[in-house]
Structures are given as C-alpha cells and as structure tokens.
C-alpha cells in the first residue's frame, strides 16, 4: 500500500493547477491519493482517482503518508517553500519519501530565509527533484540549493482530452479562434498600448467564430478572472465576432462543467488559440493546435513555456511580447 500526499496550489479555481495534479498522480501511482486543497469539491471533481483532500500540514501528517509530492503549477515560490517545508521535514522524519516534482520556479533570491539547515537536508535527500523548464534550473542554481533538478518539459501536455463538452457546444465545419486572456493590470496596459499590433495579428482570423478558453476564475483574485479578461478582449478587439459557445462565459455553467480534460477537449477543436495562459498554450501544444502567445515583455511566464516546448510547437505558433510604459 502506498499513501501519497500531493502538495500544490489546488482548489483556487485554476484548471491548470489541477491539470498538474492529474499529471503528478499519473507519475506517482498510489493505493491512496490525497491532495491539499482550499476547495475539496472542486479538486475532487477535476481529478478523477483522487481519494480525498486535506486542509493543512497538520492534517497531512495525520494521514501518515508514505510519500509526499511537492509540485503543482507555479509552486516553487518562497511562500510555498516556507509554508510547507517544516511539515515536509516532519513527514520525512516519520518515514515518508519526498519528491519535488515538475515545479514552476520563481525568482527566489529575494527571500531565502526558509532555506535553513533542515530544508537543505530535505533537499539533499529528495527521492526525485524535477522542474518544468530551463529557467527553473537557473533559479535553483542561483539560490544554491546544493543540487540541481532534472527538467520535465511540461509532461501535463500529454494528459488526454475529453471532447464530450466540445462536441456538445462547438459547431462543425466552422473556423474557430480560441481566446485566453488574463485581466491583470500589466496585461491590460500592454494591450491598450499595443492595440494596433494586436489588431494586425487578429486580422488573419477575420470570420472565425470565437471560443472563450477560460481556465481560471480565481477564488480570491479579480486580476485572475479569465472570464472577465475574455469579455473585455472581445469588446475591445473583436466586437462584431460571433461567439461559438456563449455558455463558456456563464459562471455557473463554467463552475459546474469545466475540468482540465474538458477544457483541453475544447482546445483540441480550435484552428488557433491566442492565449496569455501558459497551461492553455500547453493544451494547444499537446493537441497539435497552432498557438500564439501574448504577454507583457517584462513577464517571462509565457515566454519560458514556449522555449521549453519549442520542440513540440505546431507550425505557425509563436510568442509575441508586448510593451507598455
């Protein structure tokens, strides 16, 4: 029997994070799979095969896991390391095997107070240590973790799609343009400043119907409400376009129906995806769908994804950096 505790940013309303959990569960098959989540019902619905969720480190220890997998999206950040390392160390002391898996790693040098002798010992003894891209290796090296990770290159790209929802919602024999936009202040600013460039980009897709590809409606951040981002983008750049599946802009429908695999099923039907969300780009790459990334040049999140997945990019795909003052 193997009981595994999965640690990540789960339950926050980001289907990309639960996609990473699905991949981690496949990479670490277990007799029992438990995951941290701030919304257990959401995470359990998104991730078939997950047995239960726990709310904090004490609840994780009470499970007495045989294995702890720390990962799940952009989780290699100082706050996550600080919050979970003491609990991970206790789990290891009780005999649990520890894995750092498929981590998205932020710039760490601004805050390394958590990287004490106990944390260094845990890292030295990790059963496995992987990050998802080249920049993650650089960030780990800069922070002097004492060992370097291997690169996974976004293995969640190979989670299979569920096309049932796409078959029910999307028209046949129509050209489909998917849109995935994050309404963060810097994204809004660069879209406004570079509006002419964005309109020139979109001119190629005149006549396409629009498919809102909403992967995040965050539980406590309006800046990560992709439904609002998509609505605003259509209003500002494609006001006359037809929306192929208006239900995808209905919050109740989205919360009840969308899962990582159903979202990928929608992406699989597109002719092209214009996205600012990295995991929607990953869905497109995994399906062989042309993808165009839009991102503020000062933000490397999407750019590093395209670099890591360059060997799998469908023809015509590219990442377009946008300036703003």
UniProtKB/TrEMBL annotation:
This is Polysaccharide pyruvyl transferase family protein. It comes from Falsiroseomonas frigidaquae. GO terms for molecular function: transferase activity. Keywords: Transferase.
């Amino acid at each position: 029997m193997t009981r595994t505790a999965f640690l990540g940013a789960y339950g926050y309303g980001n289907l990309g994070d639960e996609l990473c959990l699905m991949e981690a569960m496949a990479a670490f098959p277990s007799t029992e799979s438990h995951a941290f989540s701030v919304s257990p019902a959401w995470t359990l619905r998104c991730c078939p095969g997950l047995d239960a969720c726990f709310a904090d480190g004490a609840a994780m220890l009470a499970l007495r896991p045989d294995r702890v997998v720390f990962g799940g999206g952009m989780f290699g950040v100082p706050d996550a390391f600080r919050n979970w390392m003491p609990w991970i160390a206790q789990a290891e002391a009780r005999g649990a095997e520890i894995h750092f898996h498929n981590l998205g790693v932020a710039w760490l040098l601004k805050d390394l107070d958590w990287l004490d002798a106990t944390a260094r010992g845990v890292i030295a003894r990790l059963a496995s240590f992987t990050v998802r891209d080249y920049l993650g290796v650089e960030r780990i090296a800069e922070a002097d973790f004492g060992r370097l990770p291997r690169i996974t290159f976004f293995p969640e790209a190979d989670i299979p799609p569920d096309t049932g929802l796409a078959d029910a919602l999307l028209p046949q024999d129509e050209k489909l343009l998917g849109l995935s936009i994050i309404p963060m202040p810097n994204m809004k600013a660069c879209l406004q400043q570079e509006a002419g460039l964005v309109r020139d980009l979109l001119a190629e897709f005149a006549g396409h119907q629009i498919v809102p590809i909403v992967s995040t409606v965050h539980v406590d951040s309006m800046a990560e409400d992709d439904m609002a981002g998509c609505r605003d983008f259509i209003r500002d750049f494609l006001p006359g376009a037809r929306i192929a599946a208006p239900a995808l802009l209905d919050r109740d429908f989205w919360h009840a129906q969308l899962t990582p695999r159903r979202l990928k099923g929608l992406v699989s039907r597109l002719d092209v995806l214009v996205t600012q969300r990295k995991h929607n780009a990953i869905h497109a790459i995994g399906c062989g769908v042309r993808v165009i990334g839009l991102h503020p040049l000062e933000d490397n999140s999407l750019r590093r994804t395209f670099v890591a997945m360059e060997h799998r990019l469908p023809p015509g795909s590219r990442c377009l950096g946008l300036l703003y003052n």
